[in-house]
Fold:
Amino acid sequence: MKGQILEALRERTHYVSGEALSHQLGTSRVSIWKHIRGLKEDGYVIEASAKGYRLVSSPDLLLPYEFPGLEQRIHYFPEIGSTMDAARELAKKGAGEGTIVIAEVQTRGRGRLSREWLSPEGGIYFTLVLRPRISPAYAPRINLMAGIAVAVTIKELYGLKAELKWPNDVLIEGKKVCGILAEMDAETDVLNFVNVGIGINVNTSLPRFEKTATSLKDALGREISRKKFLSALAVEIERWLPLLMKADLLEEWRRLSATLNRDVRIMSLGEEVTGQAMDIDATGALLVKDKAGSLRTVLVGDCIHLRE
Ligand code: BTN
Structure:
């Protein structure tokens, strides 16, 4: 109902009477009034006068009813430990494909390789529950898909060149703007679910001395609407998801890659692999030509880009 009220208020620039709203939305004026009060508590500025209600401003919060069509699938938390934990619990209980856990702030956000993911106000932090019918061996393609969706959204909305660093970072001018973490639940050959966690530095400002990370705000020189970004990203994910097992996905990743053709050093399962990144294979593994000229298949690891 809150979403429908917002939509009705946004359709007009002048006042809308409580009576007109209750008529349009098929509910009582008391119910309209209660929901308006709820919206005000959420941070919406709504002017009320004898002529009715007028929406003056909306907070840039990722509240479920700001995403018409997705609302029923969103679990929203102003603050949480990690969206990964909440999503895992939901998925274990049978939550369907497309369930989304969003938090404004995470107190125990985590990154790959057990690292911490700082999650202050102003970023976008969410985990998406997916249940693709693919073999667990192909699960890393989900990271590729998520990276592509983020990079394409950045380019389409702001014209910034976003690139992908294997296995799943999104970079702007060589600095990380987004990290992706996938956790799966699988049996030998059956994938029950894959939860994809996406963390984007949006309106956060990073210290000047920070050489390896950036935010959209720092790259653009202004704050942006996180709601608009997340809506556009959801559309992009829905566009790429059906292409998960198609060659087009790998092609797009190659096109956006900042890793391919570079000299890289990868710490992989306690072993260091140094060489030139040649390609990715169908499972998302990186193919590296090492110093001896052998082609090594690197499944997981931490990748460092060496000189240009
Ligand atoms: C990485 O680059 O190491 C991955 C970072 C992933 C961060 C996101 S934020 C939403 C989700 N919840 C978490 O605790 N982590 C992921």
About this structure: The pocket of biotin is lined by residues 82-84, 106, 109-112, 115, 117, 125-127, 169, 179-181, 197-199 (CB under 6 Å).
